[in-house]
Every structure is written in C-alpha cells, then in structure tokens.
Write a structure and sequence with these properties.
alpha+beta, Immunoglobulin-like, globular
Length: about 650
C-alpha cells in the first residue's frame, strides 16, 4: 500500500543524518556546589518541605512501597495517590502517581543533601539508594509493575515515567559516590527497557486513549538516556532518544510536542503544561542525535510557540492546561512543575547550543517565577501562581466559580490536588546549580551567575573557581581561580541588560560571553562589575512592567493570611492570603527611583483609576512578595 505524503514527510523527519555536537559540555552533578543565598535556600528546603515530605504525607511515600512489595499488578484497582477525586472515578488512571511523588521528591532530597553536605540527610539518602537497589530484578528491571503488567500496555501507564524519576536521583548519587555498582544497576535498568521496547520494533507510546498523562510523561526518559550517553559514550543511548521521539510523534496522543503539530506554526500549545515544557528536551535530544534539519525546524517552531506562553516573570502558563491561550499576567496561572521543567529544558538547550539567550531565560525564570511562587516567610509553595497575584484563596485571583479549584494557595504538600509541585520545588535550585558552569574545548564557562564553587578537570588539569557574589541581589562578581600552570579561557556570560561593565583583566567579547584568556598559576582573582538600571518593558498584552538587572519588580499588596490546615509536624501549614485592600493601578509614565544605592527597593508613581489620582508606590523584587501587581495597563485615554 502506498505511503501517504504526510506519512512520508514524518518518516523522513526521523532519518538519521549524522549527529550534532553539543556546544558546551555540562558538568557532572556535584562538580558545582552552591554558596551564599542559594545554599541557604537549599538548606531551608531541607529543613522544611524537602526534608520532611515523607512525614507530612506518609501514606504516599512511606506506606506505599510502589517499587518493591507494593508493585502494581492486574489485581490492584485503587490506591491512595493523594488527590481527592469525585466518586473515585479517576483512581485507576493515576495508580502510578506515587512513583512520581516519591522519586521526584527523592531526587531533590538527594541532590539537596549532597549540595549542603548535611550528614543527617546524606545518611538517609544512602539508605534509600540501598533499598532501591534491592528492588531490582535479576533481568535488570527497576520499576513499579509486577510481571503480569510490565511493558504490556495499550493505555495509560507509568512504566517509563516511574523509571525516569527514580533513575535521575540514582544518577545524582552515582556522581556523588562514583560507586560503579550504582551505574551498573542504572545501565541494567535502561538495558531492560531497550530489550523490552526494541527500537523501531515496538510502540512504547501506543495508547487507545489519546489522553494518557503518565504514558507521555515517559518521554522524559530521554533525560536518563542522555546522561548515560555523556557518562559512558555509548551512542546507542543517544540514538534511543530518536526512536522514542519518533514513536511518540506517530501515536494518536493529545500532546503539543509531536512533530506534525510543531510543524504547523498556526497551531497554539494546548496540552498539560508540565508535559509540554519537559518534552522540549526530548525533541532537542532527537535532533542532536539525528542532525535531521526537519527536527531542527520543529525545535525552532516549538520555542516560538513557548514564547507566546511565558509571562513577564518567565512563568510558563498552564493552569493546568495551556489550552491554546497566550500568557496573561492576571488571567493565566503557571504550575510549579512547569517552572522546573522549562528551566531544565532551557539549561539543556544552553549546553547544546551555547546560545547565551538560554542563560538569560533560565535566570529570569529562576530568579522571578520560581522565587515568586515560594512563600518568603515559611516553608510552602504555590501550586499555581500568577504574575499579578491579587488573592491566594484557592481560585484564580479570587474566582470562586470553580469549586474544585484549590491550587492557588500556599502549602508544603498540596495533597488535595497532587503532591507533585512540592517535590519539584525541591529540585529546581539543585538543577540550577548543576548548570551554573559548563566547559568547551577552550576552557570553563560561567553560564548562569550566582554564588557557587566549581572544581573540575580542564585540559587535563584540576581547576577550582570560587564565584563570590550575592547576584542577583548585587552586581559585583569575583572569581577566585586556583590552578597549577594551566592555560585556558575563562568565559562569563554577559547579561544583555548590562550595557556597561568593568572587568579587572583584559577581555574580549564573543557572542554574549566575556572571554579572558591567559595562563593561570596559583591563585588569581578576576572581578567583574555589572551596572544595572531600571528598564521599562511590555509583556505580550502590551502591559508595562519594570526590571532591574535580571529581577522583575512588583508592587507588593498588603495581605491577611488565614491558616486553613495544619499538619502533625510542627511548623507546617496551608495558608490562604487575601488583600487588605485592592486597587489595580495603571502605568503613569513616571520615572522609577532607587530608594538607597544598596537596597533593592524602588519608588515610582502609578495611576489609580478609582480615585482618578496618581499615587506613590514601592517596587521590590517579585520573589519577596506574596500578593503583588507586576504589570500595569496603560492609563486609559479618557482618564
């Protein structure tokens, strides 16, 4: 039977034409460690929700040994997965949920323990890894299904997703310990997948139902494959990424990242946000494995579509669905899971392309949307958050029409919806830290700025660099380089907002990077000063907002907090916040002044359409707020 033209085009898109080398080499986890405020935040998370989620929701984490004795079989029809559903009708679809909750949480837990070198949490992480290794079958299988179910699906399942979330944490532990028995176990688990889902002879993403969340989450298995390829150099891992994306694209699924949908530039993103933004990495892995120009076009189109769904803070909308609508500061929320997944995809593309713009996007997302969805006063996060956040009482900015909407609040768990965002909130800072430094054939590159220390091999020599700064809350950065007779480039990404800089050494500019080339001997200090100023910008809807360096500024709104739930563990609670008073102000074309040179507090004048008068306001970084106004509509002409 002749192949239809559309099918022929899709088939051609997956032909391997070669491979594309990555511009930068990501450093193994733990070669970069945090300092300063980033380390403090990771430790705060360990002392809070990241270190205690098992005590807050023991039913989901401790009492369900989903990878061991409680593996799923045909006889399991229901399970407590944390979410409250009506009449239990959705229970069977989400039986895999606890694997995500447990393993994403453990991934953040393990990485946080390592990066802080907290001996209490390291000991617990070690015990967890040992226990997971005991669940591995003799054929290499690591997962959540008994033998009567594994690899035998034509519908919703969590086979690949449960492995992805588990193995990412195990890879972090391998990097820390360099215990090759762990690497051997990971390779055996991946090998078991490749045997049971043989490339181009099986259909791991086949589903009779186009809505299959756990199944399509499984495309993120490419994270594990690419990490193994970087560790071992085995090309079969990278090539398997191409196969997975091929099969994913050819199935009847309601997912944005399928090749044919990306090639239609008129088709907006519609899917579940976390899926869409994590699938960006999977497409990138397929293109770099194949060098197929059609996939390069799809990747470009994908990024173009994402640009229409990101807010002023960088938040990728999806509440929980993107639903074909563009970003809106007041009317569209973004999920913490999506914040993490898009950040992870940006840093992946930063390594692959070397494009400094991806560093800019990563910093914007981490310093603004991610910090702005954390409670700055206690250990909890917002499952959903908007840039303009006028109320956090369950519904979108005070909307009570959807009675089941509870995501717009602060909680250390969010068990009434799903305990997915809190685990990802514990992962995001460690993943940011891992990507702060990369290298190429010429030297080391500070691609993301902030307080940290890197120790790695460069041109056969061991190099240590301490990055001393409080960035982005101050704008001087000092690099203390310790090396023994080593000649290499020190590159530092130059933020586009920094129109003026000073550097203590001679340097050149290269495509968004400051380049200092010299022979390094002993201890050497290099200082860079960036000079920010307040910049007026407009979002996708033409509303104005202000930035200072990489920080988005917000007008804080005084709020009243109401405790809605407490937990047996002291100090943890769910909170609603409502405004003390609410006036939505408008842009008045007035200057912004910094209150003090050493303080990130600014004043300006905005227009109040109710009083029909201008009034002075304070602007502070979005990460220091709970309720706030970030964007300001132009003053109406009749006013």
């Amino acid at each position: 039977m002749p192949v239809k033209q559309s099918e022929a085009q899709v088939y051609d898109a997956f032909q391997k034409k070669g491979s594309v080398p990555e511009a930068f080499q990501p450093l193994p986890f733990f070669e970069v460690v945090p300092l300063g405020w980033i380390k403090e935040q990771i430790q705060e998370n360990l002392n809070g929700f990241t270190g205690h989620l098992d005590s807050l929701v023991p039913d989901l984490i401790i009492r369900d040994d989903i990878y061991g004795k409680d593996r799923l079989s045909k006889h399991v029809k229901a399970k407590d997965v944390g979410a409250i559903t009506e009449n239990g009708e959705l229970q069977s679809q989400f039986l895999w949920w606890n694997s995500e909750t447990q393993s994403n949480w453990r991934d953040g837990y393990i990485r946080s323990a390592i990066l802080t070198m907290d001996q209490t949490y390291l000991s617990r992480a070690k015990g967890y890894i040992r226990r997971m290794l005991t669940t591995q079958d003799t054929d290499g299988y690591l997962g959540i299904y008994d033998k009567d179910l594994r690899y035998k699906f034509d519908n919703e399942n969590g086979e690949l997703w449960a492995k992805t979330t588990l193995l990412r944490g195990m890879l972090a532990w391998y990097y820390f310990t360099r215990d090759f028995t762990i690497l051997k176990a990971i390779e055996a688990a991946v090998g078991n997948v490749m045997v049971n889902y043989p490339a181009y002879k099986s259909y791991p993403f086949h589903s009779v139902n186009p809505d299959a969340g756990g199944l399509t989450h499984g495309l993120a298995f490419t994270d594990v494959l690419e990490e193994l390829w970087r560790i071992t150099g085995k090309i079969e891992y990278r090539d398997y990424c191409l196969f997975l994306y091929n099969d994913f694209s050819e199935q009847m699924l309601n997912e944005d990242a399928q090749y044919s949908k990306l090639m239609d530039t008129t088709l907006p993103l519609k899917g579940h946000g976390a899926h869409t933004y994590e699938h960006l990495r999977a497409l990138a892995s397929a293109f770099y494995a194949s060098a197929n120009p059609k996939l390069k076009t799809a990747l470009k189109n994908f990024l173009g579509k994402i640009s229409h769904t990101t807010t002023a803070s960088g938040g990728p909308v999806g509440d929980e669905w993107i639903a074909g609508r563009k970003a809106d500061a007041t009317g569209r929320g973004y999920e913490y899971c999506s914040i993490h997944e898009l950040l992870n995809s940006y840093t992946d593309l930063l390594a692959k392309t070397g494009d400094a713009d991806f560093g800019e996007l990563t910093e914007k997302l981490f310093f603004n949307a991610a910090q702005g969805a954390r409670n700055p006063f206690e250990s909890s996060i917002a499952y959903l958050k908007t840039d303009n956040s006028y109320s956090m009482c369950g519904g979108l900015n005070g909307d009570t029409t959807i009675k089941t909407q509870t995501r717009y609040k602060y909680s250390p768990v969010h068990q009434d919806v799903a305990a997915c965002c809190v685990p990802n909130a514990g992962r995001i800072a460690p993943y940011y830290v891992q990507s702060m430094w990369m290298k190429d054939s010429k030297g080391l590159i500070a691609v993301l700025l902030g307080p940290c220390e890197v120790e790695t091999n460069c041109k056969g020599k061991r190099i240590n660099i301490e990055e001393q700064t409080a960035y982005p809350y101050e704008y001087s950065v000092t690099f203390i380089i310790t090396a023994v007779d080593s000649e290499f480039d020190l590159k530092v990404r130059r933020p586009s907002w920094a129109k003026k800089i000073t550097v203590s050494e001679e340097y050149s500019d290269d495509r968004g990077y400051i380049v200092i080339h010299k022979r390094w001997q002993g201890e050497k200090s290099v200082s860079i000063q960036f000079f920010p100023d307040v910049q007026l910008r407009q979002d996708l809807n033409g509303e104005y907002y202000y930035t200072y360096g990489p920080l988005v500024l917000a007008r804080p709104i005084q709020s009243i907090g109401v405790q809605t739930k407490t937990y047996p563990l002291k100090g943890f609670r769910d909170m609603h916040y409502r405004p003390l008073t609410l006036n939505v102000l408008e842009y008045a074309n007035e200057k912004v002044k910094q209150v003090k040179q050493d303080k990130l507090e600014f004043t300006t004048v905005l227009y109040n359409p109710v009083s029909r008068k201008t009034e002075p306001v304070i602007l502070i970084p979005i990460g220091q707020t709970i309720l706030r106004q970030v964007t300001f509509k132009p003053k109406s002409e009749d006013q």
